[in-house]
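Researcher: Re-running this chain for the archive, since the previous output was lost when a drive failed. Same request as before.
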Amino acid sequence: MTDAAQNRWKQDLELATRCVAGERDAQRTLYEREKRRVHATLYRVFGSNQHIEDAVQEVFMQVFRGLGGFRGESSLSTWIDRCAVRLAYVYLTTKKRRTQHLELVDNVESKDPSAEQRALAREAARRLYAELDRIEAKQRIAFTLAEVEGHSLAEVAEMMEATVVATKARVWRARKELESRAAKDPVLKSFLAGEGVAS
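Model: Regenerated structure tokens:
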């Protein structure tokens, strides 16, 4: 372990210990440090902002309830990512969120060609998340963390508490399913082929 990694590990353990002891400043520091990343991860998995704030709060409630069990075997950020992934899985499997809030803008009135491109990209993203709603939750989460968020398969496996092989299979199955459905949808097909999911 490098000196920087060792230092980060010590800081994580100290911060976790202070949070468990009920220090409000430490809890606020942890929340402020991690909330943006948790929000981004949940947004990419869910595809909309509709329930994000509630979900972020719920993740941090779980984090603060479970922080006593943090042993420093991974970074505190990775441990929090696992909490977010677990919550996303529960949310996708029990609440059956099915509404999308990304909409195509009708009649884009602009001479700027990028306005039409942005509208097309929004429509493609809406279609992508509509199809992701039909994919099994573990596959959806693995796909969005790897293909949309840009995490490595090893990072996704760690967040999902799975093997790299299982994670790779989940991403592959999700991609194959999406490609199969995109064969009938030129907008989605173009989006997937252009690596639009990583934008």
